[in-house]
Amino acid sequence: MARILAVDDDLDISMSIRNWLEHEHHQVESVHTGDDAKHHLRIYQYDLIILDWQLPGITGVEILKEFRSNGGSTPVIMLTGKDKISEKETGFDAGADDYLTKPFHIQELLMRCRALLRRGTVSSSDELSVADLSLDLNKFKVTRGGKEITLTAKEFALLEHLMRHPNQIFSSESLLESVWGSQSEASTDTVRVIIQRLRSKIDGIHDKPLIANVRGIGYKLSTE
């Protein structure tokens, strides 16, 4: 499961991209202007960026140049109606990792996303393990003590985040921002409910609980 930022001012294309990527269990945030894209890239970290060239206010190429100049290393797929070699060269010179000309088939975009995510800089492991708890990102599968546990997409995303940062304490607000994203209408109560469900599923029948509630601070996945 990857966290992806999709930037396109065409609402139909944006919705299609988001729906297909979420179907593959990715967490997707969609924005439609250059200023919103810059804001998100300053604040949040992503595993992949899908960036349209033509945007209101500022072009995708300008956004990409600024992102790379500030040290951003996240893989970027540039979407554009420009198909001349010189224009493609401009996109690659700005720091794009891949380039897809509109109109495109959504399956081709998905294949390119998979290829970039396999070599991405943020999500480096497809399998995570803490104690006897294992999470397989490719198979969307969680097991503890060899027994498979069925999780919803959001439970899976939250558990993945905790497993990537064992023993680190996260407040409800931090988890809300990292797992649900800035566009979500979820609240800290939502986080509490999902944590309770996870603890029931992950720790319910085991003598050693892994998901700990640090009173007054937040939650962590404990290896101790």
Overview of this protein structure:
The structure is a single chain. The protein has a five-stranded parallel β-sheet with strand order 2-1-3-4-5, with helices on both faces. It is an alpha/beta fold. Helix content is 42%, strand content 21%. Strand 10 (211-214) and strand 11 (218-221) form a beta hairpin. The longest helix is centred in the last third of the chain and has 16 residues, at 188-203. It is elongated. It folds into two domains: 3-118, Rossmann fold; 127-221, Arc Repressor Mutant, subunit A (Orthogonal Bundle), CATH 1.10.10.10.
Topology:
Blueprint: E1 3-7, H1 11-23, E2 27-31, H2 34-43, E3 48-52, H3 60-69, E4 76-80, H4 85-94, E5 98-101, H5 106-118, E6 127-130, E7 133-136, E8 141-144, E9 147-149, H6 153-164, H7 172-180, H8 188-203, E10 211-214, E11 218-221
Helix pairs in contact: 6-7, 6-8, 7-8
